[in-house]
Design a protein that fits this description.
Elements: H1 10-17, H2 21-28, H3 36-49, H4 55-62, E1 67-72, H5 76-79, H6 83-98, E2 102-107, H7 112-122, E3 128-132, H8 140-147, E4 151-154, E5 171-174, H9 176-189, E6 195-198, H10 205-217, E7 226-227, H11 233-246, E8 252-255, H12 258-270, E9 280-285, H13 288-291, E10 299-302, H14 305-324, E11 335-338, E12 341-343
Parallel strand pairs: 1-2, 1-3, 3-4, 4-5, 5-11, 6-7, 6-8, 8-9, 9-10
Antiparallel strand pairs: 10-12
Length: about 350
């Protein structure tokens, strides 16, 4: 037999604090108009009694669920194998936790999952959404727009002509094109003349921007030196093998991310190519679990992935606070672009 322990009620909090139930409710639910001495008495009563607000009742008052959906447009196998997603989720989680908001993770394993995600977002379960790793043909933006939830995107969305929404999308990204230019210029400065590029998945804007950065520097490069990858270790291996078949004299490789670069390094080692003596290699991300563990350690372009996550959450929470307060403040910038830096290690 177990004994049922009754939970402290809001009435008990009000009685302990010596205030009305309405006053206690305003304090507990973050309302305004209560004098500071009364606020302190209510907070002390909450702590002494161990009172936990009823979320359903709280939502009726605040119109907030204190929950944010994080939608990653990738299958589980990709999300849990790539440290990029863990770093971005860590940044998001830290910011949401600091604001007492819950993270609800939604993944898209297959096309049937998009409708499920759309229904969940439209069902009023969360206050807003953070969405990243979008592909150009992704239906998620349309579903999210239809759901009417405030949204911040991770990475530059693949549309900008207003065809999907009358308002410009809010997003956080890194200077992908500038970072790619810095990487390729470094390879050229080393005296490399056959500089190749392993791209990311070209249905994602980050890959397109990094390819554009490569072409900014290598405008006259042999087109055989560009091979499409997919941001994965296996994709980097496949692309490096194709590069060596096409252009055996390649002497430098800029890979679109660290995992692709790690795959390229594996193949070069298998083929007996010395790095950086025969072939210099540069990645993109500076994910320490990858970049510091490759052989040799990887020169790469650093983007602050965790900070990107924090900024996404911060922008969304700021928008939600304004909506709750019914402010009509001038809307801030619709995009934030973080700088990138080249981190030199032994591979180039």
């Amino acid at each position: 037999m177990t004994e049922t322990v009754s939970r402290p009620t809001l009435e008990a909090v009000a009685a302990r604090a010596g205030v009305s139930r309405a006053t206690a409710s305003r304090v507990v639910n973050g309302g305004d108009g209560v004098r500071e001495p009364l606020v302190e008495r209510v907070r002390q009563a909450v702590e002494e009694l161990g009172y936990v607000p009823n979320q359903a009742a709280r939502s009726l008052v605040t119109r907030r669920h204190d929950a944010v959906a994080v939608v990653i447009a990738e299958p589980e196998s990709r999300v849990f194998a790539d440290p990029f997603f863990g770093l971005q989720l860590r940044g998001i989680s830290k910011e949401l936790t600091a604001h007492d908001s819950q993270l609800v993770l939604l993944l898209t394993e297959g096309r049937d999952d998009y409708a499920r995600v759309g229904r969940y977002l439209a069902g009023g379960h969360v206050d807003g959404a953070l969405v990243f790793s979008l592909h150009l043909d992704d239906p998620l933006p349309e579903l999210i727009h239809g759901a009417g939830v405030p949204t911040v995107f991770g990475g530059r969305p693949g549309w900008g002509d207003g065809t999907r929404d009358t308002a410009a999308p809010v997003y956080v990204d890194s200077d992908n094109r500038g970072g790619a230019r810095a990487a390729v210029r470094h390879l050229v400065a080393l005296g490399r003349t056959r500089v190749a590029h392993i791209t990311g998945a070209l249905d994602q804007t980050s890959a397109v921007d990094r390819l554009d950065g490569f072409r900014d520097v290598m405008a006259d490069a042999d087109q055989r030196l560009v091979v499409e990858g997919d941001f994965t270790l296996a994709g980097g291996e496949r692309a490096m093998r194709e590069l060596l078949e096409r252009c055996p004299d390649v002497d430098a490789v800029f890979a679109a991310n660290d995992l692709s670069a790690a795959g390229a390094l594996r193949v070069l080692r298998e083929r007996g190519r010395r790095v950086p003596d025969d072939v210099a290699v540069i990645g993109f991300d500076d994910m320490l679990p990858v970049a510091e563990q490759t052989d040799p350690p990887l020169t790469t372009v650093r983007q602050d992935i965790e900070e990107m996550g924090r900024l996404m959450a911060r922008l969304l929470l700021r928008d939600l606070d304004r909506r709750t307060a019914k402010e009509r403040a001038v809307r801030g910038p619709s995009d934030v672009i973080l700088p990138t830096t080249l981190v030199r290690r032994a591979s180039a």
